[in-house]
Amino acid sequence: MSIKQNISVALVTGASSGIGEATALRLTAAGYKVYGTSRRGAVQTGQRSFEMLPLDVTSDVSVEAAVSEVMQREGRIDLLVNNAGFGVAPAGAEESSIEQSQSVFDTNFFGIVRMTRAVTPHMRHQGSGRIINIGSVLGVLPMPYMAIYAASKHAIEGYSESLDHELRTRGIRVSVIEPAYTKTKFDANLLAADSQLEEYHETRTVLDKVLGEVMAIADEPEVVADVVLKAARAARPKLRYTAGGLARRLSLLRRFAPARVLDAGLRKDLRLDAIKKPQMS
Predict the structure, then answer these.
(1) Distance between CA 157 and CA 103 in Å, rounded?
(2) What are the two backbone dihedrals, phi and then psi, of residue 104, each rounded to the nearest 5 degrees?
(3) Does a structural domain hold residue 3?
């Protein structure tokens, strides 16, 4: 098998819309040979400048098949962008069953683990590569009533930092992109908690309204795509990159603001203290 070296090859998961699609388009415009993936595979919407492959990140067989397909065609993978993921609508942590929580982790976290395990041997063989994981500012600043989603993003942070230490001596670097709110179909497709309790009804209503307001002024997915390209091209890549002004401000607050100030500001922004406490019968 000949290895083509005149063009960098990128594999982007969850590229049918939103951040994944914007990233695939941005990388293509920058000169990468891009393969996007989604569960539906090659279903085309409009004139895409990159090819789509079928890939389900929760399936070992599907992951291996997609990576093998790219390797067979191109002989190398220079950049892996792990973007596939989903979230649960705001709800109490106890309102998500164990099965639902496992499902979130299976896509958001173990999907990244599967993809990384499939691609890393090829990058080690070629002596170079970049792995960029799309995390969230909630991976460093947890949001109340988003516990399961935030936990999956915290897992990405820890995994990525450990992995970067392991692989950098083999020519491979790992980075995490940390967006805040981004205008995608993500918020429209949030999975409702599957064990809802009346105790949290008003809280869910308030937070749904807050989420709708912030999404109306959220960053476009191209903001994240630009940061992905920056990390991919960096001669000395950083472990963490924030994407957008809000994410940058929240990250700085997490690092430098006193815990009491941060706690009060978070509760105020989410209007948590205005929610009436349910009366005990």
Answers:
(1) 19
(2) -60, -45
(3) no
Strands (E), 85-171: 129-134
pTM for the whole structure: 0.92
| 204: Cα separation from own chain's centroid | 23
- Name 36's Cβ contacts closer than 8 Å, sequence gap at least 6: 12, 15, 16, 20, 21, 24, 48, 50, 51, 52, 53
pLDDT digits (tens, 9 = 90+) for 136-157: 999 999 889 999 999 999 999 9
Q: Is 220 helix (H, G, I), strand (E, B) or coil?
A: coil
Range of the domain at 252: 9-274
Classified as helix, coil or strand, 50 is: coil
Going by C-beta distance under 8 Å and a sequence separation of 6 or more, which residues neighbour residue 3? Answer: 75, 76, 126
What type of residue is 92?
G
Q: Tell me the two tokens of residue 8.
A: 């960098």
Residues of the chain with pLDDT under 50: 1-3
Select from 95, 103, 90, 25 the least CA-distant residue to 57: 103
Task: Give the pLDDT score at 191.
Answer: 86
The CATH number given to whatever domain includes residue 233 is: 3.40.50.720
| Tokens found for residue 248 | 């940058």
Residue whose pair of structure tokens reads 């912030």 in the numeric block: 214
Active site residue 149: yes
Assess if residue 217 is contained within a domain: yes
Q: Spot the catalytic one: 32, 35, 145, 149.
A: 149
- The whole-angstrom separation of Cα 82 and Cα 104 is 15
Residue 219: both structure tokens together = 């960053």
Tokens of 228: 């992905």
**Chain Cα centroid distance, residue 281:** 42
